[in-house]
Specification:
Strand content: 15-25%
Helix content: 25-40%
Number of domains: 6
Number of strands: 34
Distance between the termini: 98 Å
Largest sheet: 5 strands, mixed, barrel
Strand order of the largest sheet: 3-4-5-7-6
Radius of gyration: 32 Å
Length: 767
């Protein structure tokens, strides 16, 4: 029988007991606590069972007894059943089950007599923020499962918020020390310190192993000590150099067995659902080490009399949507990953190899399903029309960029020679026409060199190269850009939702900083009106003429906004396009798969189109894949930095030519001309003066001497320290600074402090 007064929460309404005197039974209290959907304490229990006066004191005693008997946890403002977790709690993801779902445990579990409950974390497309990974802590809403649930879990969890990584449990490289024990070296540039490990706290870690460790708590005096809690592996092993990035960013490097099984069951479509384009001589042009080939191209003069001098370009893109159905296990795994990640020693693909390297790889002389766009351009390179279709194609050849370029330059090899006149020459002629329109459009012309790390058979760095930028690269790039524009235009015309690749104009604050810097080089940036890419291109032309091209290119790049995925169209500033979507790489980018599904739905190309649920969640999907893209870029960059630091570790004391690539209050960053490696020169190591950061002039300037170093300066540096595990390099500067006059802040009256590590130039002045 319910109580006379209606309590404030549903659990109290359902489980309160009418009583004439005395306390409720322990079983009644336990049933009430277990069915509660919110936090329960002594006050809520007293209210639910209508306890007053002395009964409240007796309740306190009863709850103490129940706690002592192990029936409940807590006695005051928050009480839970001994085997029950709060409805909202923090959990830590520890593994994946056979279906690819995350398995978690409570982040805090104080009951040493029982194992923590197993929690099944159910992911949804609408989950906020980036997709979580193993090792992440999340705030989740829990629902208790019935006993005998096939998942073998006690709770099901829904994500509320992803939390920052717990700072007390870190990653590092274990190093043994003679006599027992060891030390843990950092993997974070911002935390260049070591932690000592006592002999009994090393676990099974061996020298060079990547470990997860905890910092000893409650220690107020003496050095901080660490304890190894998990052995992850050895990054020095062949093909494992990216291990640090995989674990520090929580990147999934293996597919669940169920996802792999689903991929093996897939089969290719037939001509019943796809057009037959096997008579079109498509070819693929990719890097020589490409594992998959998701785009193919073909071009020919337009035979339409109304388009004299025009060209037809066809681009075929692997039909991933046929194989990866919306909301399937494959699809959910792809969304979690967001994109493929390319390390020098491995690829972490978005899709299983059965799809990326087989069914959706446009292999030479094999039938493959594709989503194809046929585009017509006039003699000036302006697009006059386009049409999308779903087809079966067959690539005639697989060429590398260098092979295709060599053939056009008059040196075809055995594979390219038969294709030169019939396929390659028309491609280049069509590109020459498209290039006219591109140059007239005036996209941002930042042609900065990109370094590539080449590994030897032992998995270590063999050399660092800057691959040449060929016309073949620009040809494929322009064809892909035009295909992406066509996709966005088609979807807008059909009023279909889509995910754009958005690149906003630079912010006023960044433009102001850039304008101040350019003024110091006697280069003007327009101060009023809308700044367009063509303005930046004029600035870059002046900079190149004054032998400052690379410097100004890097500063202009830093002034740009970051490109993101968005369900709203903000245009693409860098490409100077009003609308732009990613369509051409669905094997390695989830955004492209969404665009493919949108095109299939909008153009009536089959049953694999965008679903209504996906349409309602496009903004969340766009946010998720923007986050995973940033995560991938950071992981790739940090891995390259670690490889290069290891490559240079045996050259301590060597002198290098470098350029100043960045400045902060505490020092300056330099980039080596030889390898492109980045390192830091602390301001405290530049002897004989106190240096201040002048943001307007992008320089560090000495208070006393007025000598300084500016962004882009050529300098000589000596390598002082290399920490491969963190990818950190520290240098001292050997070159004298240039006279730049005093900073705006007055120099100190007193003599500068003595500083350690004075450079060679300072010592020479003293002599």
């Amino acid at each position: 029988m319910p109580p006379k007064k209606k309590p404030r929460s549903k659990p109290r309404t359902q489980h309160a007991k009418q009583r004439s005197s005395g306390l409720p039974a322990k079983a009644d209290i336990l049933e009430f606590i277990q069915s509660a959907s919110s936090h329960i304490g002594k006050r809520e229990i007293a209210r639910a069972f209508q306890l007053k006066g002395a009964d409240k004191i007796d309740l306190k005693r009863l709850l103490r007894e129940m706690a002592d008997e192990g029936l409940i946890k807590g006695r005051g403002k928050r009480v839970t059943a001994a085997d029950k977790l709060p409805p909202v709690t923090v959990i830590e993801i520890t593994a994946r089950d056979g279906d690819g779902e995350f398995i978690a445990h409570p982040a805090r579990w104080d009951d040493e007599s029982a194992a923590p409950p197993r929690i099944l974390l159910i992911s949804r497309r609408s989950d906020p923020g980036p997709a979580p990974g193993i090792g992440d802590r999340v705030l989740a809403r829990l629902t208790r499962l019935e006993e005998g649930d096939p998942s073998d879990a006690t709770y099901e969890a829904r994500l509320i918020k992803r939390l920052p990584r717990e700072p007390s449990q870190l990653l590092g490289i274990f190093r043994t020390i003679a006599g027992g024990g060891g030390a843990i070296a950092p993997i974070d540039k911002k935390q260049l310190r070591e932690w000592s490990v006592r002999q009994g706290d090393t676990g099974s870690a061996r020298d060079g192993d990547l470990v997860r460790f905890e910092i000893e708590k409650g220690r107020r005096f003496g050095p901080m000590r660490a304890q190894v809690v998990e052995l992850i592996g050895n990054p020095d092993a062949q093909g494992a150099v990216s291990l640090i990035a995989l674990h520090s960013f929580g990147l999934p490097d293996e597919f669940p067995e169920t996802v792999l099984n689903d991929a093996e069951k897939l089969s290719a479509p037939s001509l019943k659902s796809h057009d037959d384009l096997r008579d079109i001589p498509f070819i693929t042009i990719d890097p020589p080490d490409a594992r998959d080939h998701d785009d193919a191209v073909w071009a020919a003069p337009d035979d339409d009399p109304a388009n004299s001098g025009g060209w037809v370009v066809m681009v075929g893109i692997a039909d991933v949507a046929h194989f990866v159905k919306s909301d399937s296990l494959l699809d959910r795994e792809a969304l979690t990953r967001g994109n493929s990640i390319y390390f020098p020693d491995r690829v972490v693909p978005m899709l299983p190899e059965r799809i990326s390297s087989d069914l959706c790889s446009l292999r030479e002389d094999e039938d493959r399903a594709c989503l194809c766009v046929r585009m017509a351009f006039d003699a000036s390179g302006n697009k006059t029309g386009h049409r999308f279709s779903r087809a079966i194609m067959r690539s005639r050849a697989r060429l590398s960029y260098a092979q295709a370029q060599a053939a056009i330059d008059g040196k075809p090899d055995e594979a390219a020679a038969p294709l030169l006149e019939s396929i390659l020459r028309p491609l280049w002629q069509a590109y020459a026409v498209l290039a006219k329109a591109r140059d007239k459009r005036g996209p941002l012309n930042l042609d900065l060199p990109e370094r590539k790390v080449v590994l030897g058979e032992d998995g270590q760095v063999e050399r660092i190269v800057i691959p040449p930028r060929l016309e073949a690269h620009r040809l494929i790039e322009e064809f892909m850009i035009q295909s992406n524009v066509a996709a966005a235009e088609t979807l807008e015309a059909k009023r279909s939702p889509l995910i754009y690749r958005a690149h906003d104009a630079p912010s006023p604050e960044k433009l102001e900083t850039l304008g101040d810097f350019l003024a110091s080089l006697s280069i003007d940036l327009p101060r009023s009106g809308l700044v367009k890419p063509e303005h930046f291109n004029h600035i870059l032309e002046k900079a190149h003429a004054a032998d400052m091209g690379q410097l100004v290119s890097e500063v202009v790049l830093r002034s740009q906004a970051q490109a993101v995925y968005s369900a709203a169209n903000a245009g693409h500033f860098g490409l100077n396009l009003r609308r732009y979507a990613h369509f051409t790489s669905p094997i390695r980018r989830y955004a492209d798969l969404i665009v493919h599904r949108a095109l299939i739905r909008a153009c009536g190309l089959g049953p694999d189109g965008l679903t209504g649920r996906e349409i309602g969640e496009l903004e969340q999907i766009a946010q998720n894949i923007s986050d995973t893209e940033r995560r991938a870029i950071a992981a790739e960059r940090q891995t390259v930095d670690r490889l290069i630091a290891a490559f240079l570790a045996d050259r301590i004391g060597a002198v290098f030519a470098a350029r100043v690539s960045g400045l902060v209050r505490t020092g300056l960053f330099v980039r080596l001309e030889e390898t492109g490696a980045d390192g830091f020169v602390p301001a405290s190591s530049i002897g004989g003066d106190y240096f201040r950061h002048d943001e307007r002039r992008q320089a560090l300037i000495g208070d006393r001497t007025g000598m300084g170093y500016a962004l882009g300066d050529s300098v000589e540096v000596r390598l002082i320290e290399a920490v491969p595990s963190a990818g950190a390099l520290r240098f001292e500067i050997l070159s004298d600074g240039a006279y730049m006059a005093a900073t705006k802040k007055k120099a100190r009256k007193a003599a500068p402090r003595k500083r350690k590590g004075r450079n060679r130039a300072a010592r020479r002045r003293q002599r």
